[in-house]
């Protein structure tokens, strides 16, 4: 029987994220677990292995010219920003922004190329039309109000500039490794509680995993000539790297906070036990991403 259960059912069929679903979850505290602050160093050596190749492809699709000004929103540990800086060269200017100070610090410690600032995508500290290119790798699903955020992001892009976004594609979470991870999580918390937490942290993941809906959202925001590609990626990983990465995803962080210091090690042990019994020590993890690029008229 899982330890954590949901107090109230979520409204069926609601397209909007609930105001604060997790606050309604038994035992939930202020959702500090939503922040990436404490996991930045671990992100660099686990989840970044997964986001960096599509982030690099996104920058390539954006065709960043030498000397360009590029904004990387939700830069995290700077994967897309570093590729943009390589493309823009010394004459260019690449700025990575992220609300997580921990992520921005980690990004800044990695490379001297891009500049970084702690900021959300709302009220960006830049004048209208500052940037030639705008990149957002695996971040739009996190925006609380994505319409307002996209409006603000396009404000700082110059007319004629290009914007590109990467998001995980439909079916991305349907493999044997993700299922095994979900099974272990569900030994400790009800699936509904985990789904609430995920929805709270990443409210638009499902919406933006769909090519047509992603295109519609970007078109409604004002982008034109939108081109969307679905690409496949493979990451060679060890069980430890994989599990460390899953532990710092939003639901992993949520569970850690819920279980506390006493129970978290039992969860970690159980996950390693299950993976050791089913999979080899090294395996290939496949991913599907959508890469969308358009221009501002
Ligand atoms: C999955 S990580 C992606 C990081 C990086 N772009 C990459 O591809 O590895 C999502 C990032 O978005 C940031 N984020 C969350 N909400 C945001 C918002 N409203 N505006 C900008 N960034 C946000 C998080 O702090 C986190 O660093």
Layout of helices and strands:
Blueprint: H1 40-45, H2 47-61, E1 69-73, H3 79-88, E2 93-98, H4 101-110, E3 115-118, E4 131-137, H5 146-155, E5 157-168, H6 176-188, H7 191-201, H8 205-208, H9 211-221, E6 224-238, H10 239-247, H11 250-278, E7 282-295
Parallel strand pairs: 1-2, 1-4, 2-3, 4-5
Antiparallel strand pairs: 5-7, 6-7
Helix pairs in contact: 2-3, 5-9, 6-11, 7-11, 10-11
The site of S-adenosylmethionine (SAM) has 21 residues, from helix 2 and helix 3.
Categorize the overall geometry: globular
Say which molecules are bound, naming each kind only once.
S-adenosylmethionine
Quickly name the level 1 CATH class. Alpha Beta
CATH topology: Rossmann fold
Taking pLDDT < 50 over at least 5 consecutive residues as the criterion, the unreliable ranges are: 10-30
| Contiguous helical run count | 11
Measured as a percent range, the helix fraction is 40-55%
The order of strands across the largest sheet is 3-2-1-4-5-7-6
Give the H and E element order: HHEHEHEEHEHHHHEHHE
Derived structural class: alpha/beta
Number of domains: 1
Radius of gyration, in Å, reads 19 Å
Mean pLDDT across residues? 90
Please report the distance between the alpha carbons of the first and last residues: 55 Å
Largest sheet, if any?
A: 7 strands, mixed
**Beta-strand content estimate:** 15-25%
CATH architecture: 3-Layer(aba) Sandwich
- CATH homologous superfamily descriptor: Vaccinia Virus protein VP39
Number of strands: 7
């Amino acid at each position: 029987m899982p330890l954590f259960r949901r107090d109230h059912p979520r409204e069926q069929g609601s397209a909007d994220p609930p105001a604060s679903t997790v606050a309604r979850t038994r035992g939930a505290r202020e959702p500090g677990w939503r922040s990436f602050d404490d996991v930045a160093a671990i992100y660099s050596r686990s989840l970044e292995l997964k986001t960096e190749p599509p982030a690099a492809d996104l920058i390539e699709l954006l065709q960043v010219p030498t000397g360009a000004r590029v904004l990387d929103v939700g830069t995290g540990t700077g994967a897309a920003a570093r590729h943009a800086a390589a493309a823009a060269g010394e004459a260019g200017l690449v700025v990575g922004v992220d609300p997580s100070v921990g992520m921005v610090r980690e990004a800044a410690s990695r490379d001297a190329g891009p500049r970084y600032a702690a900021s959300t995508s709302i009220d960006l500290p830049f004048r209208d039309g500052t940037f030639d290119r705008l990149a957002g790798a695996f971040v739009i699903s996190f925006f609380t109000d994505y319409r307002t955020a996209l409006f603000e992001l396009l404000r700082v892009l110059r007319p004629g500039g290009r914007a590109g976004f990467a998001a995980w594609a439909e079916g991305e979470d349907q493999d044997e490794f993700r299922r095994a991870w979900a099974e272990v999580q569900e030994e400790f918390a009800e699936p509904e509680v985990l789904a609430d937490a995920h929805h709270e942290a990443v409210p638009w993941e499902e919406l933006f995993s769909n090519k047509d809906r992603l295109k519609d959202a970007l078109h409604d925001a004002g982008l034109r000539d939108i081109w969307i590609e679905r690409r496949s990626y493979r990451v060679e990983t060890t069980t430890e790297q994989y599990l460390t990465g899953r532990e710092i995803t939003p639901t992993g962080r949520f569970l850690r906070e819920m279980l506390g210091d006493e129970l978290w090690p039992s969860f970690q042990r159980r996950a390693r036990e299950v993976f050791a019994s089913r999979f080899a020590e090294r395996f290939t993890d496949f991913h599907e991403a959508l890469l969308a690029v358009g221009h501002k008229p």
